[in-house]
Amino acid sequence: WDACAAEKRKMMVTTFIHSPEMLDAVAEALREFPPHPGFDVLQYTCPNDWGLYMVTNSSIGRVGPHPEILGFDYTGENWGQSTHPFVQVDFMVQRFDDARARSKNIVGIAGYAGWWNHTALGTFNEANAFAGRALVQNPMRTADSILQEWCMKQFGGKAATVAANCLRRTFSVVFKSQQVYGYWLDTISKSGLPELRELDEYLIKDVFGEALGKWDPKFMPTWEKIQKPDEKFLVNILAEKDDAIRTSRQSLEEVLAAKDVFKPEDFSLLERAFQFQVLWANIWKDHTEAYFLRRMGQQQNWSGDLRARLERVLEHYTTLADQF
């Protein structure tokens, strides 16, 4: 505190934590902290790390009279780090509206515009940073108007609608590819593919407190199926992955069909982005199917054709890896 005052800077405390109990304790401590013009609270829009997007940070509006700044991850630390599009304008508008309903002290928006040597600026994810600024200037803005305006600036009038429709789908595509019904398949490689050991530790054993069911009971049935998967659950998982593949392919086809309305350099970047997302979604499908076939095999003593199915998936996975 003294160091901030000496530098004539404000002090900001974030509610980033790893368990509901820790979050409640931080909120309680902040409520007891006296207000000061040099003190703000940065509220991540979701609790834990940038993976629990299905859950809202319950401390928003519960930290006393302090000004609250809503935090987002523009770059996508765990979702590509802006190497491919993860455009979350709809999510940002919804969470900003929700935060303002929960708290009368929301005074601004902040976002991570970079992660190590990657940045959202100059990429498709810059739309997220644009949305943060737009919402601060006018909290009543809609997601449609914000994304359309950004795409108009980036691609021009004729191409803007095509680009906006395709880019807004990337939020659900990324999550349906890299999650299991909202459950984060975490990895220390950040945005990469989790190793077998990591899935066992981070997903099954939940060493980082990321299991959604521990944050919100409505997610507990999925957690129980993750712990003991059966054939029906695997079918549902693969349906989620297939939806991501179909949606990313739809966007690629729409961009290809509208080639003439884009500048050549814009078309090239969009084509490459959606070609990658189609491949990425397919890779994640095989990766996830292989893991759950292994888990089912271990729990069911490799009954029926589980081992043969796992071997077929791994063989197909190898062909996809050769394209990567």
How are the SSEs placed, and which strands pair?
Blueprint: H1 2-6, E1 11-14, H2 20-32, E2 39-44, E3 68-72, H3 89-102, E4 106-111, E5 114-115, E6 118-119, H4 126-137, H5 143-155, H6 157-168, H7 170-178, E7 179-180, E8 183-184, H8 196-204, H9 220-227, H10 231-257, H11 264-299, H12 306-323
Parallel strand pairs: 1-2, 2-3, 3-4
Antiparallel strand pairs: 5-6, 7-8
Helix pairs in contact: 3-4, 3-5, 4-5, 5-6, 6-10, 7-10, 7-11, 10-11, 11-12
Key features of this structure:
324 residues; alpha/beta; four-stranded parallel β-sheet; two-stranded antiparallel ribbon; 12 helices; 8 strands
Question: Structural class given helices, strands, pairing?
Answer: alpha/beta
What is the string of SSEs from the N terminus onward?
HEHEEHEEEHHHHEEHHHHH
How big is the Rg? 21 Å
Number of strands: 8
Number of helices: 12
Mean pLDDT: 96
Quote the distance from N terminus to C terminus: 49 Å
Gross morphology:
globular
Measured as a percent range, the helix fraction is: 40-55%
Question: Can you list the strand order of the major beta sheet?
Answer: 1-2-3-4
The stretches of 5 or more residues where confidence is low (pLDDT under 50) are: none
> Quick one: biggest sheet?
4 strands, parallel
DSSP strand content: 5-15%
